[in-house]
Amino acid sequence: MTDKLFTSPARYVQGIDLIDRASGYLRPLGTSPLIIADDVVWGIAGEKLQESLSSDGLDPAHEIFGGEASMTEIDRITEKARSGGNDVIIGLGGGKTIDTARAVADHASLPVAVFPTAVSADAPTARVSVIYTDEGVFDSYLFYDRNPDLIAIDTRVIANAPVRTLRSGIGDALATSIEARAVNRANSRRMDDTARPTLAGLALAEKCEETLFAYAHQALRDNEAHVVSRALENICEANTLLSGLGFENGGLAAVHAIHNGFTALDGDIHHMTHGEKVAFGIGVQLMLEGATEVEADRYIGFLQSVGLPTTLDEIHLENADDDDLRRIAELACSDGETLKQMPGEYTTTDVVEAIKAADLYARGLKERTGRS
Predict the structure, then answer these.
(1) From residue 305, how far is each of 213, 217, 231, 302 by CA, in Å?
(2) Is 172 labeled as catalytic in the residue annotation?
């Protein structure tokens, strides 16, 4: 029987104005950090973080992230870290920056600290990076021997981030329990295919869902007003820690396979965030599973109530034909994808029909509830 396995970051911390006291959490990892951030994030939080670390006696350097979590970019920044004598890597920003920082740290055999500037996805806690080609097409997953050494979230930074990023994280986080329960029913494996998920992972996934339903609407309103409320803090933790540990230790299933399947197409869908595309994928998994109307209304209705996309039109695939849907389905059903962790077996045709059914159900729900 395959072993069960639970993995997690060494330390997680979140709080208001955390950047001002970041050195206290970073010093045990190193004194010469390399901060990786894109141009936009550097102006928002990078300069402040560098100044904070310098004023507390550390010797930080920085490197501007080029925008794509590709092996070309990873190799480039790894060489910078080696030649600069850095002893810890900091990933400051969003998902692709963080994925790149993890890979750079692994290649350079250094500890890594993750400072998300938005809670738009559950990637920060994981010991995996999603790798793309230089053109932005999904390529592969890179799995590491350990999770990040530190996750640090400054909730004031999150409160001042675009509301779309918090909403996107809610979509990604909602998938956690839906996928973990499917993997548990199938007695399947973690996404890294090395072991079986734990009950702890499933419990964290379910707590994540409970938190979303309890606080998401208030957190979105508070984010609009740039208020660091208890509701916002709870959703920060749900989107990042609960969802991150839940997906890694509970498993991924059809939802994220559908998300990755979208990379088979060109067009405006790639202007959607990770969590927005995941939100549509939730409907697809529910249709594959034959969810009852009560269950489908609960999840798809929640997504609609917080403004996440649930129809093909809303993810810019209103003109997708059967050939386009088949391309998505073929990639989602490929050997390296997590759809295989679902109970039962599904064909490309099954997935195409589930995509159509998810769109039809979501449009019907809008009509029934009067949502635009």
Answers:
(1) 11, 8, 17, 5
(2) yes
